[in-house]
Structures are given as structure tokens and as C-alpha cells.
């Protein structure tokens, strides 16, 4: 709620506009970002989620997952900060709603054992089934406004090579720039 209030302040004071406002998160930050997208999707143009923790409920209920105890502790703290009684209320996978979302760009790594590619692909599939098509984006860019990019040499913290990480960041910003140009072209051709 505080973050949405902060975004509202930036918009009211004309520091930014929803047509150019992007969010970026990493790991469990995707939980907070998804909560914001469900409350106010119209405030954002797109969101980039790097190696996101999207399937909270199934991951934490898996007794074979050795990371569950430490992750549960982190999510309980996040839940208390958000003033929720259950950490699962904000699980992105369980809370994809039937509404248009801003463009979602998910980045994963083949060597990420904390947020495996299989979970990311499962999220993308569910998103494409449940979310409404956002008419601001062409189907030629990505089906239902969601794109999954998987890096071969990346783990949960990205790549170990600074040059590769810089290239990956340039690719993200290049895509966001492309998305901005494409949207302007789509809007102009519809007039």
C-alpha cells in the first residue's frame, strides 16, 4: 500500500506517467510486485521480474525443498510488513486475475535451483490462460503480454561474468525501449 501511495505521488507531481513507468524486481521481490499489479495494474507500463519467486504456495509446501524454512521466514516477515495474516495471500501463481496486466517480462536461469525454469514456465502458462489480453500490446510482441527469457549460464543471482550480466541488462532495456516504440506505432496506426 505504501509503495502504491508513493507511485501515486510520483504520478500526481508529474515526475512520471503510466505510459513510461516500469517496475523491476528480483527473486521474492516478485511477490510484492505482483501484489501491486493486482491492486493497480493501470499504473504501470511493464514489469521485469528477474529470477522471480512466483509459485510460493507449492514451493513452501514441498517437504523435499531444503530452502523452504528460510524462505518461509522471509515471506512471513514480508507478510507482516504488508499486514496480511497469511504469506500465501500474495503468491503470484495463485493470484493471477482475469484482467489486463501491464507487459510482463520474466527472466530465468537454467541453473537457478531456487526459482527453476519449470516454475516460471508454469506461471507463464497460467497467466496466458487467466489474464485478459492487454490491447496496448500487439500479439506479435508476445502472447497475452508476457515473455519468458531463459539464460543458459545464469543462476539465481544472474551470470557470474560481468560482461554477460551487462549484456543481459542491455537486452532488458533494449526490449523495454522496443516495447515503447512498438506501442507508439500500434497507437498511431489505430487512430
SSE topology:
Layout: H1 2-12, E1 22-26, H2 29-39, E2 46-50, H3 56-60, H4 68-81, E3 103-109, H5 117-130, E4 146-151, H6 162-190
Parallel strand pairs: 1-2, 2-3, 3-4
Describe this structure in words.
There is one protein chain. The chain is an alpha/beta fold. 44% of the residues lie in helices and 12% in strands. The chain has helices spanning 2-12, 29-39, 56-60, 68-81, 117-130, 162-190; strands spanning 22-26, 46-50, 103-109, 146-151. A four-stranded parallel β-sheet has the order 1-2-3-4, covered by helices on one side. Helix 2 links the parallel strand 1 (22-26) and strand 2 (46-50). The radius of gyration is 17 Å and the shape is globular. 26% of the residues are buried.
Amino acid at each position: 500500500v505504501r509503495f502504491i501511495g508513493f507511485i501515486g505521488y510520483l504520478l500526481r507531481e508529474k515526475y512520471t506517467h503510466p505510459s513510461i513507468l516500469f517496475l523491476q524486481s528480483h527473486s521474492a521481490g516478485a511477490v510484492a510486485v505482483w501484489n501491486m499489479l493486482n491492486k493497480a495494474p493501470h499504473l504501470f507500463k511493464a514489469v521485469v521480474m528477474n529470477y522471480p519467486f512466483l509459485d510460493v504456495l507449492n514451493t513452501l509446501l514441498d517437504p523435499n525443498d531444503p530452502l523452504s524454512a528460510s524462505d518461509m521466514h522471509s515471506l512471513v516477515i514480508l507478510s507482516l510488513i504488508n499486514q496480511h495474516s497469511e504469506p500465501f495471500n500474495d503468491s503470484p501463481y495463485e493470484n493471477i486475475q482475469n484482467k489486463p496486466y501491464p507487459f510482463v517480462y520474466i527472466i530465468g536461469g537454467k541453473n537457478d535451483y531456487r526459482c527453476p525454469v519449470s516454475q516460471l514456465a508454469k506461471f507463464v502458462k497460467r497467466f496466458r490462460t487467466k489474464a485478459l489480453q492487454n490491447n496496448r500490446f500487439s500479439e506479435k510482441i508476445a502472447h497475452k503480454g508476457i515473455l519468458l527469457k531463459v539464460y543458459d549460464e545464469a543462476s539465481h543471482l544472474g551470470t557470474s561474468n560481468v560482461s554477460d550480466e551487462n549484456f543481459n541488462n542491455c537486452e532488458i532495456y533494449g526490449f523495454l525501449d522496443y516495447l515503447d516504440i512498438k506501442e507508439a506505432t500500434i497507437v498511431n496506426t489505430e487512430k
